[in-house]
Fold this protein.
Amino acid sequence: MTNSFADFEKAKSFLIIGSNMSEAHPVAATFVKKALLNGAQLIVVDPRRTELASMAAAHAQIKVGSDIAFLNGIMNVLISEGLYDKDYVQNCTKGFDALKEKVKEYPVARAAEISGVDQKMIVDIAHRLAKIKPMMLMYTLGITEHTCGVNNVLSCANLQMLLGNVGFECGGVNPLRGQNNVQGACDMGALPGVFPGYQKVDNPENRAKLEAAWKVQGLSAKLGLMIPQMLDGLLDKQVRGFYIFGENLANTEPDIAHIEKVLAGAEFIVANDIFMTETTRFANVVFPAAAWSEDDGTFTSSERRINRVRAVSIPPGKAKPNWWIFKEIAKRFGHDWESSSAREIWDTEISEIAPSMKGVKYSRLENDGLQWPVPTQEHMGTPYLHKDGKFTSGQGVFSAVDWTPPAEVTDKKYPFVLSTGRRLQHYHTRTQTGRSEGINAILSEETVDMSPQDAANMGIVSGEMVKVMSRRGQVEVRARITEEIPPGMVWMAFHFRESCANWLTNPVFDPITLTAEYKACAVAISKIS
Amino acid sequence: MKATNEGVLLLNGKEVGFIEGQTVLEVAQVNGVHIPTLCHLKEMTPTGACRICCVEIKGMRTLAAACSTPATAGMEVFTETEKVHKARRLIVELLVSSGQHNCISCEANGNCRLQDLVYFYHIEKQAFASPEVPLYPTDADNPFIVRDFSKCILCGRCVQACNEMVVNRAITIGYRGAKSKVVTGGDGSYMGSDCVFCGQCVEVCPVGALVENKGRGTGRNWETKKVRTTCPYCGVGCQQLLHVKGGKIVKVTAVQDAQPNKGRLCIKGRFAYDFIYSKERLTTPLIREKDQFREASWDEALDLVASKFKEIIGSDGPDAVAGVSCARSTNEDSYNMQKLFRAVFKTNNIDHCART
C-alpha cells in the first residue's frame, strides 16, 4: 500500500475495485464503513454485490475481467472533459500523451459494451471520482489474479496519477495484502529476483555487498524461478530437490489434479509445516515447525508496518522454529550462521542489509511498530509514499494498456464464468481455522454461489447439491442462491478440500508475474438428481 | 492568544482549557479528573444511557451526563459533590437490582465496571429486590458468544460497537421500558442473524452479560498474563492481546488505541487462535519410506536433507533445487530460507505465494 490503514477512517472518497474487504480484510472494512457513516463517497467496482457494494454511492457491476476497459473508459471521460489534474500530470508524471491516445480507443460506448456497465453510470462515476480529492483507491486479488493482472494494476495507477491522488494522505494506490506476512516475505527477498530490501540480484554491486555480509563467494546472478516455473521444472526433472515451507500447494494452486501429479512425480520434497497437509503427503522429509505464538519474530503488514509477534507457548514435542531448521541445514553445508534468535537475525542481519529497514531495530518495535522505509534510527517511518507526487523513482509513469479478455471464456459447453476468492470465517485451506474450535460450526462447507435467475432457470433450489464442471475437473457442492451474484456468473472459495474451487480453476498466468487466473474460468453446472 | 475554538471552564473550581466540541467527560479525562462511565465508548456517538457519569453544573436544574454534555466557556462543573455521589450510588443500586449479578461465578469477576462501582460505594446489601426469574433466557446458541441477559445493564455499548465501530449493524435495543433487550433483527439468536461473530460486543461489554464461550472457566482476568502480538491471518496486521495462563492462550482481545485496528478484531483474529493446541500438530521430524512416514531424530532428518541436496547440486548444479517460502511465517524465517538458497545453495530459485 502506498498509504496507511489510518487513512481509511479519515478519507472522503474511495474507489474499491476487485476487493471484498468485509470478508477478506474485515477490520480494514470497518474503517471504510465508519468513513461512510461520516459522509464519505464510495464507488465499488466488482462483479459481485458485496457488502461494501451495497453501501456504495455507485456500484459498477462489471463483467469478470473487464477492469481495464472500464478504467480506460473512465479515464476517457476524465481526459475528454478535462476533469483530470493537469498540474499534477504536467509536473509529476510522464507518458501522458500515450495514455491519452490509448484511452481514446475506449469511448464510453465501448467501455460499456465490454464491461456491461451502463454508459451513464461510467460518466457519473468519472464525475464523482474527479469531484473529491484526494480519492483513495484500494484493490485486492480481483485485480491481480488475471492473465492481465499487471495491466490491471497499471490501470489503477494510471487513474490515480491522472487524478493527482498519489502522494497524499487519504489517497494512493492500495493493494490489500492477503496474508499476514506476504509483504514481509517479499521484503525479505523470498522472491527470485531480489535480495532483502528489493536489491536486484543481477546487479554486481548488490551481489558484492551481500557476499561481504554473508561472508560467501559466488552468489548467483541468474534470476531464479517463480512457483509455476518450479512446478514445470519438477515435471521435466530440471528441478530435482523442492523445499516447501508452510504452503499447501496441493490445494492452493490452480488445477489440483495437475499439481498433485507434479508433486507425486517429484524426486525429493522437503516440507516445514505445523500439520500434515494435502501437500506434505508428497514430501520425503517433513520437519515439525513452531507456529505463531510459539516463536518471537516480526510480521510486516499491508501498510509496510513491521510489527512484533511474541512467543507465549512452547512448540509441541520436538517442533522447532523455522529459522533454526534453515540454519541447521546451512551448518551441514559448512556454513556456520552466527545469529541464534529472531531478534539477532533482524538486528544484526536484515536491518544491516536492507537500506529501507536500516533504522528498524527490535528495541524500536515495542508498540505500533514502524512503517518502512525507515532509513535511519532517528526516522519515524513512512505513512505514505511518493509524498506530494514526488515519486521514489523520479516521475510517475503512465502505462498505456489495452484490455484483454480472460484466457478461458464461456461457450455452449461451459456457459458460466467461475470466479473464486475467500470467505470471512475460514482462512485459505483451513489448516488453521478448521482446527480452531467453533469456526466449522459457523461455516461448515463450501457452496457455489449463484444468481436467483440462473437457479430458477435450471430449477435449482437453495441448498441443493449440484455438480460444477470445468475442463480440469468437477466438484459436487451445495448451491447458495444469492443476489450478490449476477446472472451468468458463479463464485466459490478454496477452503474445503472436496469442493475446492481449485479442482476447476485454470492454470494460465499473467506473463510477467505468473499470477494464475483464479478469477476467471468457464464452468458448467448441472443438477445431480 | 487563544485560538477561537478554545475556551476555559471551571472543573472542581480549577480553570481548565478545552477545545470546542469536547464533552465535559473528555475535558475531565484530559485533566486527570476521574468520572466513572459505563455506556461511554470512546470516539462513538455518546448515548447518555446509563447516567453514571453525572456531574453537577452550576445553573443546571438537574445533574448532567458528562459524556454527552458539550463543554462551554465559563461552565462550572463539579464531579465530586454529595449530590453527584448520591445519584451515582442510586444508579448503581438500581443496576445491581435489575438482574442476577452473581460475582462469585461470573466470568467478568475482576474485570467488571459494575463490580468496581459496587465496591467503590461499599454497597453490601441490595437496596432493591432483583426479579426472581430472568426476563429472558441466556442465549448460548453459537460457539463463541454467550449472551446472559440477566446480567445486561442495557448500557448499549455493544449496540454502539456493532453499529458505529465495526458497522455490522446486527444488533439494536428492542422492546420498551422494563422489557428492553439487546436484540438481533427479529430477536433471534446470533446464529442466523446478521452477526458476523467479530466479538466486538463482547470486547466492549462492561459487565458479564456478554462473555466468550471458548475462554469460559479457563482463567480469571487477574490470573492471565497479557502479551501483545500480531494477528496471524490477513495482511491488516491487527494488534492482539493474548491472555495467557499456564503457557496457554485462553482468550484474545484487541489492543486498545493501537494501529492499525484501534481495538477491533474479526472472527478469525479473536476466535481462531487454538489451532496451535490441536492434537494433530506435527511433533517430530518424519521421513517417508515407500508410502509410510516414520519418526526420525532431528539429526537423521537434517542429515538426509543436506546429503540429498548436496548430491543434486553436485550432479545437476544449484538451479536443480528450488524453494517456496511461507507468507504466514515470520520475516526472520523467510530471511533465513532465502539466505539458505542464495548463500549456501547458490541459486535464486526462491519464491513464495507473493502474487496470489
